[in-house]
Amino acid sequence: MKKIGILFGKERSFPMAFIDRVNSKKFDGISAEPVYIDKVMQGEPAGYAVIIDRISQDVPFYRAYLKNAALSGTAVINNPFWWSADEKFFNNCLATKIGVPVPKTVILPSYKLPLDTSNESFSNLAYPLDWEGIFDYIGFPAYMKPFAGGGWKSVYKVENVDDFLVKHHQTEELVMMLQEEIIFEEYYRCYCIGGKYVRIMPYEPRNPFHSRYVANFYPTEEKLKEMEDIVLLLNKYLGYDFNTVELAVRNGIPYAIDFCNPAPDADINSVGQENFDWVVETAATYAIEKALSYQPGKDNLTWGEYVKRSSSNVNLV
Questions:
Q1: Would you state the pLDDT for residue 149?
Q2: Which CATH fold topology does 104-180 show?
C-alpha cells in the first residue's frame, strides 16, 4: 500500500476534503490519511510515499521530520530542502534573470541588531546606507514587507521618507524589503500544482479578507495565456509542486508581486466553493500521480530549474 499523508495545523476544510477525494478515487494500492508521527529516528523511513506539507513553515520539528522522510524516498510536496533555503527577495532576483516583470525591490538590514551580534558584526556594511539612492530607485509610496514569511504579516505602506523611518523602527529585528508600489488595474492570485496545473483567480487585495476573491476582472484569452506562462515559468525555476503566484496588472503588464507561497490559503471560507473544489481535485490528482511514480529509497523530490542548472554549471537562461 502506498500511503499519501497530509501534514497540517489548525486548518480543516482542505486537509479533510483532500483525504476524502483521494480515497474516493479508489486507486488500487493507494490511500490517503493525516500524517501520524509518534517518533522520528534518524535515517528511518516515514512510511509515506507522498506527504503534502501545510505547516512545517511554522513548526521546525516538522521540517526536520520531512527532510528525514525525503532522504528515505518520500515525495514531499513541497521540497523541504528548497523551501528552507528560499525567500522572497531571492524570488524577485530570480525573476529579473528569467524575464518576469517584478516591482523594483531592495533588501534592508534589520533596524535592530540581531541577537548575539554587535556593531563589529557589520564591518562590511556602509553606515549610513545610500538612502538617497534607495529612495530614488524605489520611489514613494512604497511597500515594506519581510523578506521571508507570508500571510500579510508586518506589511507596511510607506508614503514618504519620514513615514518610512517611523515604520522601519517598528520592524525591530526583521529583515525587510522595500518595494515599488504597483498601482494596478487588475490583480490575480494563481494556484500552480505539479508545475503544470494552473488556476487563475481574480483577486482584490484591497477588499476585506473574506471578500478578496470577489472581483470584477475579466481577462482576455490572450492575457490569461500570458499569465499562465508566467506562473508556469516561475514554478519551473523554483521547483514548487504547490504554490500561488500573485500578479498585478499595470498598463497591461502582469507584475509578479508575491510568488513564494508554498502553503497557500486553500480554505473554503476564503477562496470560495469553485476555487476550493478545483484545488482539492487537482491536489488529489497530482498526489496520486506522485504516488504512482514513487520509487522506494530514491530521490522523489521536485527540484527547480535554478538548482538543476546550478548543479550542472549551466547558464540560468
A1: 74
A2: Dna Ligase; domain 1 (3.30.1490)
